[in-house]
């Protein structure tokens, strides 16, 4: 006698596929509104935590934004610019003459900082957001200048034509603020190992290596104090630009003897 099946269930349609006679997949519990909200919340928290961790890792090892508070690098950088700094130079990438770098105050360059009169909660919020990389680093204990002399270089001001001379070769500096001389102060320095000679592009308004010749270290900045190389102006939007190295300026400079 042929097998019998419940009405409405044709032969060969057993429950092998896991269907439930009442409709829907066997064992599947309909999601409630509460469970859907919980899933959305967990996904949102996961995304936010992942983004936060990624931001901290990038700031710590790869790149960091900095705020420009002064005019010492005009017209290359303007007051209020936000620049991004490549923290792999120095490191995997070498520093070159002409690089614009952010460095930690080697001691006494910035003087006494004015008091911060903002409310305590605002200071704390800014510090936290800066620490995780969501806000640019304020000047604080950092400065930004251009590398002019590398370890072993002889840097002199000035030639008969008023140019800087590096290892006997005078250089043209197109990045200087228009109307600014290479230097009003004469100097003749030898850059020691593991240090660099730094100058601002607005030479008449830059407290750089020249201003610290009499300090311990003779105005030279230890390479270990360099945070990284600035490579782009991020903000304001109308100033978005790459900070390329002026290789032609130093192309004829011989290596230090």
TrEMBL record:
It is found in: Cell membrane; Membrane. It comes from Georgenia subflava. GO terms for molecular function: serine-type endopeptidase activity; signal peptidase activity. It comes from the Bacteria. InterPro entries: LexA/Signal_pep-like_sf, Pept_S26A_signal_pept_1, Peptidase_S26. Its main location: membrane. The keyword Calcium does not apply. It catalyses: Cleavage of hydrophobic, N-terminal signal or leader sequences from secreted and periplasmic proteins. Residues 1-36 are annotated as: Disordered. PANTHER family: CHLOROPLAST PROCESSING PEPTIDASE, SIGNAL PEPTIDASE I. One of its GO terms (biological process) is signal peptide processing. Belongs to the peptidase S26 family. Its EC number is 3.4.21.89. Coiled coil: none annotated. Signal peptide: none annotated. Residues 42-235 form the Peptidase S26 domain. The active site is at residues 72, 145. Keywords: Hydrolase, Protease. GO terms for cellular component: plasma membrane. It is an enzyme of class 3 (hydrolase). The keyword tRNA processing does not apply. This is Signal peptidase I. It is a single-pass type II membrane protein.
């Amino acid at each position: 006698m042929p097998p019998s099946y419940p009405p409405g269930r044709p032969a060969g349609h057993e429950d092998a596929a896991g269907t439930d006679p009442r409709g829907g997949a066997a064992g599947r519990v309909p999601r409630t509104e509460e469970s859907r909200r919980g899933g959305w919340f967990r996904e949102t928290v996961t995304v936010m935590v992942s983004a936060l961790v990624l931001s901290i890792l990038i700031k710590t090892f790869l790149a960091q934004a900095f705020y420009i508070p002064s005019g010492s690098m005009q017209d290359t950088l303007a007051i209020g610019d936000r620049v991004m700094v490549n923290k792999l130079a120095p490191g995997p990438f070498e520093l070159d003459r002409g690089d614009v770098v952010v460095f930690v105050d080697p001691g006494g360059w910035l003087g006494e900082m004015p008091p911060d009169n903002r409310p305590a909660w605002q200071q704390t919020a800014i510090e936290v957001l800066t620490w995780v990389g969501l806000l640019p680093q304020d000047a604080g204990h950092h400065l930004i200048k251009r590398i002019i002399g590398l370890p072993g270089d002889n840097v002199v001001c000035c030639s008969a034509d008023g140019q800087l001379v590096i290892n006997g070769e005078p250089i043209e500096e197109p990045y200087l603020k228009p109307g600014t001389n290479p230097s009003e102060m004469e100097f003749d320095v030898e850059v020691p190992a593991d240090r660099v000679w730094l100058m601002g592009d607005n030479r008449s308004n830059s407290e750089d290596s020249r201003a610290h010749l009499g300090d311990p270290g003779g105005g030279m900045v230890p390479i270990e104090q360099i945070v990284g190389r600035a490579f782009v102006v991020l903000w304001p939007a109308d100033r978005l630009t790459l900070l390329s190295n002026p290789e032609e300026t130093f192309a004829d400079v011989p290596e230090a003897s």
